[in-house]
Design brief:
The complex is a heterodimer. By secondary structure, chain A is of the alpha/beta class. Chain A has 14 helices and 17 strands. In chain A, about 40% of the residues lie in helices and about 15% in strands. In chain A, α2 runs antiparallel to α10, α3 crosses α10 and α11 packs parallel to α14. Chain A is globular. Chain B is mainly alpha-helical. Chain B has one domain: Sufe protein. Chain: A (Alpha-Beta Complex), CATH 3.90.1010. A two-stranded antiparallel sheet of chain B has the order 1-2. In chain B, β1 and β2 form a beta hairpin. In chain B, α1 packs antiparallel against α3, α2 crosses α3 and α3 packs across α6. The radius of gyration of chain B is 15 Å and the shape is globular. The chains are: A alpha/beta, B mainly alpha. Chains A and B meet through α12 of A and α2, α3 and α6 of B.
Chain lengths: ~400, ~140
């Protein structure tokens, strides 16, 4: 079924504006997606009518806010098909979700000489927390190499995976290349050696159908703002049996059962990991993002985005001087590229002059850029509200820019 | 040689012809970069890189009598264009002139809007480095 893109676009107020005298074409969706009106309205409605601190409030507003807050948790559970709501922990974002695992699971279960396995295409947020942990614990960080196309080298993964591996922390879809990793197989193999698996789902959750029970991953980290939701909000999914044996993350209110000056007992999951007043308004508004995605349907979103990706690749590949970066067989709707003889910053600025928003630079994946011997790339990333006519304009602009150095 | 003020007015005039079209303005800045004299390969080293620029910028200053000659280069074409504007205004002047120069053309042509905040910070870092060279040479000449 083909989507009514005009109708979808009408739900996003921000898209209807001009930039440098031209209609905005927003192709920076891998950095953050725009928000539908329903999300914006839910956020302002919360502050206008429902604002109260959640849990333990003995009044109507607190009760209402708590109910809405927990409704979002249920929606997230449904969205990723977790067994129960207690497995859904609210965080500030993917980065905090990963740091939470490093600070709790990592602190308790990673010891001297243990190994943590990541890949070459990780975002800095899935590298640095593990480096810090490894330094503290005298553990070893190992890196799965990738091919020229930007795919994991499976044989190398199998070689690196040993009894010493305690955790595999891997990106589902690469933010810089778009590559979709075979995570189901990775989880299965890692479990064979007794390693736990964390999946960085920041880029995959908005594009792919995610079923944590089927994937059998131990953790899944993702952000609301890349899912048409508010910024400053993320999710950590963890299997109950793993979350229960993990120590708490931060100390404070909400995460305790009883406190005396001599001793404190901790609350049950998920509250054990949610110290302090959470980002209530954004959590409540986030439900509307999930409703939006559900209403359109993940499979229709994916086929629309696949269509855009193919269409853009066909057009761009024709351009003299166009160098694609990352040509994996399985990709989300991300196109990373360079223009022969030009710096990505310059290309990005010239596209901006035409109202086209892309991202340029290393995309917080410096080791990946080093792997390809690049300083950075230009990245166009597509979402459900993008159209083929917008891609036509991208292709036309890139062709004009490329001509400067590729006559 | 025209004064710093005259040259800045010339630049303002040139940019005003381009009008509001951002793309043509950027193309023009890039063309200016092509006119930059070659940068000596031996000077393309870490200590000559200006801190605070997103793209790489190398800058050196050479004494020519009482004047300072600047040589610079960048790995991005737009930045090269910006450097060439600064060199056009400031190179070949006395340290005092450079140190005291009020670079009004940048605001007058609305450079901030054309190049955005990241590159504006880089441009400010380049100006600062040129002025620091001027100050150093001025101090040297006065002692």
């Amino acid at each position: 079924m083909s989507l009514n893109i005009e109708k979808i676009r009408s739900m996003f107020p921000v898209l209807h504006q001009e930039v440098h005298g031209r209609p905005l074409i927003y192709f920076d969706n891998a950095a953050t997606t725009q928000k539908p009106k329903s999300v914006i309205d839910a956020l302002s409605r919360y502050y206008e009518f429902d604002n109260a601190n959640i849990h333990r409030g003995a009044h109507a507003l607190a009760d209402r806010a708590t109910r809405y807050f927990e409704n979002t948790r249920e929606s997230i559970r449904d969205f990723i098909n977790a067994r129960e709501e207690a497995e859904i922990i609210f965080t500030k974002g993917t980065t905090e979700s990963i740091n939470l695992v490093a600070a709790t699971f990592g602190r308790k279960f990673i010891h001297k000489g243990d190994e943590i396995l990541i890949s070459t295409m990780e975002h800095h947020s899935n590298i640095v927390p593990w480096q810090m942990l490894c330094e503290e614990k005298e553990a070893i960080l190992k890196v799965i190499p990738i091919t020229e196309e930007g795919e994991i080298i499976w044989e190398s993964f199998l070689q690196l995976l040993t009894e010493k591996t305690k955790l595999v922390s891997i990106v589902h879809a690469s933010n810089a290349l778009g590559t979709i990793n075979p995570i189901k197989n990775i989880v299965a193999k890692a479990h064979e050696v007794g390693a736990k698996v964390l999946i960085d789902g920041a880029q995959s959750t908005s594009h792919l159908d995610i079923n944590v029970q089927e994937l059998d991953c131990d953790f899944l980290a993702f952000s609301a703002h890349k899912l048409y939701g508010p910024t400053g909000l993320g999710v950590l999914y963890g299997k109950r049996e793993v979350l229960e044996i993990m120590p708490p993350y931060q100390g404070g209110g909400e995460m305790i059962k009883e406190v005396s000056f001599e001793n404190t007992t901790f609350n049950e999951i998920p509250f054990k990991f949610e110290a302090g007043t959470p980002n209530i308004g954004d959590v409540i508004a986030f439900k509307k993002s999930l409703d939006f995605i559900k209403e359109i349907g993940k499979s229709d979103i994916k086929s629309h985005e696949d269509d855009l990706l193919q269409y853009a690749a066909n057009g761009l590949n024709e351009i003299k001087g166009f160098i694609p970066v990352g040509t994996a067989k399985e990709k989300v709707s991300v196109i990373s590229f360079n223009i022969q003889g030009m710096h990505p910053f310059d290309v990005g600025m010239m596209l901006d002059a035409k109202g086209i928003a892309v991202r340029t630079g290393h995309h917080c994946t410096q080791p990946l850029m080093q792997r390809f011997g690049l300083e950075g790339t230009v990245r166009a990333s597509f979402a459900v509200y993008n159209s083929k006519s917008e891609i036509d304009q991208l292709v036309e602009s890139v062709a004009r820019i490329a001509k400067i150095k590729n006559k | 040689m025209s004064s710093i003020t005259d040259i800045q007015n010339e630049i303002i005039e040139e940019f005003s012809i381009l009008g509001d079209d951002k793309e043509s303005t950027i193309f023009y800045i890039m063309e200016l970069g092509e006119q930059l004299p070659d940068f000596p390969e031996a000077e393309r080293k870490e200590e000559n890189i200006i801190k605070g620029c997103q793209s790489k910028v190398w800058l050196i200053a050479q004494e020519e009598g009482y004047n300072i000659r600047f040589l610079a280069d960048s790995n991005t074409d737009i930045t090269k264009g910006l450097i060439s504007l600064l060199i056009r205004v400031l190179s070949g002047r006395t340290p005092k002139e450079i140190w005291e120069a009020d670079l009004f053309f940048i605001d007058k042509i609305g450079m901030g809007n054309i190049i955005g905040s990241q590159r504006s910070n880089g441009l400010a870092a380049m100006i600062k480095q040129m002025k620091l060279y001027a100050l150093a040479y001025q101090t040297k000449q006065n002692t």
